[in-house]
Amino acid sequence: MKRCVMKFGGTSVEDATAMRRSAQIVLDERCPERVVVLSAAAGVTNQLLRVGELAAEGQEASATALVGALRGRHERIAEELLPAALCATVRATIASWCDDLDDLAHGIAILGEATPRSFDMLVSYGERLSSLIFHAFLNTAGHPAEMVDARLFMITDGQNMHAVPDIAAIPGRLQQHVLPALRRGAIVVTQGFIGVTPGGITTTIGRGGSDHSAALIGALIDAEEIQIWTDVDGILTADPSLVPQAHRIKMMSFMEASELAYFGARVLHPETILPAVRKNIPVRVLNSRRPSSRGTSIIAQPDTSGQCVVKSIAYKENITLVSIVSTRMFLAHGFLENVFDVFHKYRTVVHNVATSDISISATINDTSHLEEIAEELRTFATVTVAKAKAIVCVVGDNLRNSRGIAARVLHAISNVNINMISQGASEINISFVVDEINVDTVVRLLHDEFFNPQDINREIFD
Ligand code: ASP
Ligand code: MG
Q1: Where are the domains of the chain?
Q2: Minimal CA–CA distance to 401: which of 261, 260, 305?
Q3: Which letter does DSSP use for residue 211 in this model?
Q4: With a 6 A CB cut-off, is 195 part of the ligand 1 pocket?
Q5: What angle do CA 176, 181, 186 make, to 5 degrees?
Q6: Closest-lying ligand to the alpha carbon of 40?
């Protein structure tokens, strides 16, 4: 492998210990051309947003105190990691940036308003501070590193706080600022999440945006791998708090990862890595606290080996099942449309649906408008609402063309009452609704059924 992008999330740079560990991972990586993309230290983005809110509410003293705390935290990291002379330089930069933050807070307090543009200016310091220290530390640790401010290349539109990167403008900038440093043999250190408009205004690309930054950079410099370093071992066959013997999934497809994401697999949001997937670049999710665990690779191609059918079992609790039966028995055209119009009107996301001519079951998570929804549906249907439900979902590319899987699922949990079953349009998941109290049992039974340690495929599972 010649070129890779290594992204470290907030917990992987949260203190001196974490930074040291992450720096070691960068140094141990054999790939010669490395681009390191960093998040702000854990919690910092939220605190910087708070600085803006406090200032806008006229509480400038509290805002300044919070800036002081952030300054102290970063100074301590620098002190622990850096030799005296370098530390002094870095501390001077930290001090001057925190003065900037105080000035910003003051300006916001005078205006009595924090705009998206001021929030972006504030939060950009989070990534800048973490990368300032990390870059300095890498340089002392035996390998030349160069800092390239993301605002030299991550050109975006002007929608502050959720700016959209301009993929036509970025490659030229990467050519100009990142590739020469790599050719010089330096490790490039840059920031995730932040960008800039063509006119030079600092932007950010949305919360949690660093994964997206890493995927974009990787796709546009033709990296061979994008590594997302977090604090979990990758994606597992089931929630380890329910199934302690759950296996790490070594490799899965983008589609499988996307299905799981809806079930709160909190590892990463697959959409953010689409630029990499489109270019067929594997994205590997790894644990910076346990680098020896090899993580999960997410790749573009579906698994069609047919050897492994079920990749993972996911669930979502706190589900409400709404059953809607049309009271107009005949010619119920428009029924589905009327039903979904009501959910749409109240901006309520429907997760699963099962339908017949005259009835629909739908699952929702957000019940803040349930009363109004039910009332409107009752003008043309009979409605029953059942709370405390859960969706359990079995995911795998090969579900599409395997026989007997639904039968195995149903057989494994034959003692449990199932309220609704659906096979997603993608055909790579089977989901069903059960009482929330049965989730533990159901997930364990299914895991036993599909992940028998004797016959799982070791190429795919750990
Ligand atoms: N620091 C930013 C956030 O917390 C971006 C990121 O961590 O991905 O949202
Ligand atoms: Mg973060």
Answers
A1: 3-231, 309-450
A2: 305
A3: H
A4: no
A5: 165
A6: 1
Cα separations in angstroms, 146 against 136, 176, 197, 297, 455: 9, 14, 23, 28, 48
Closest to 224 (Cα-Cα) out of 296, 280, 269, 291: 280
3-231: what fold?
Carbamate kinase (3.40.1160)
Question: CA 312, CA 258: separation in Å to the nearest integer?
Answer: 12
User: Ligand 2: distance of its center to the CA of 162 in Å?
Assistant: 15
pLDDT digits (tens, 9 = 90+) for 32-78: 999 999 999 999 999 999 999 999 999 999 999 999 999 999 999 99
Residue with tokens 């380890």: 240
Structure pTM?
Answer: 0.89
Closest ligand 1 atom number to CA of residue 126: 1
| Mean pLDDT comparison of 204-218, 319-333, 387-401, highest-scoring range | 204-218
Is the shortest distance between the CB of 40 and ligand 1 below 6 Å?
Answer: yes
DSSP 303: P
Q: Cβ(258) to ligand 1 under 6 A? A: no
Tens digit of each residue's pLDDT (9 = 90 or more) over 418-456: 999 988 777 899 999 999 999 999 999 999 999 988 888
Q: How far apart are alpha carbons 450 and 393 in whole angstroms?
A: 13
The single residue listed with the structure tokens 């003008």 is: 379
Q: Which ligand is nearest to the CA of 48?
A: 1
Q: Give dist(CA 450, CA 249) in Å, integer.
A: 13
Phi, psi of 32 (to 5 degrees): -70, -35
Give the number of the atom of ligand 1 that is nearest the alpha carbon of residue 10.
7
Beta strands in 288-428 (DSSP E): 296-299, 312-326, 350-355, 359-364, 381-395, 420-423
Structure tokens at 228: 């997302």
Assigned CATH for 309-450: 3.30.2130.10
The Cα 257–Cα 305 span in angstroms is 17
Identify which of 193, 205, 229, 285 to mutate to test ligand 1's pocket (most ligand atoms within 8 A of the CB).
193
Amino acid at 117: R
User: Average of pLDDT values for 300-319?
Assistant: 87
Q: Whole-angstrom Cα distance, residue 327 to residue 275?
A: 47
Q: Are 201 and 208 contacting, i.e. CB atoms less than 8 angstroms apart?
A: no
C-alpha 144 to ligand 1 mean position (Å): 26
Give residue 308's pLDDT: 79
Ligand 1 atom, smallest distance to 213 CA: 8
Q: List Cβ neighbours of 246 (8 Å cut-off, separation of 6 or more).
A: 236, 237, 238, 239, 240, 447, 451
Q: Of the bound ligands, which one is closest to the alpha carbon of residue 268?
A: 1
What is the rounded CA–CA span in Å between residue 5 and residue 225?
7
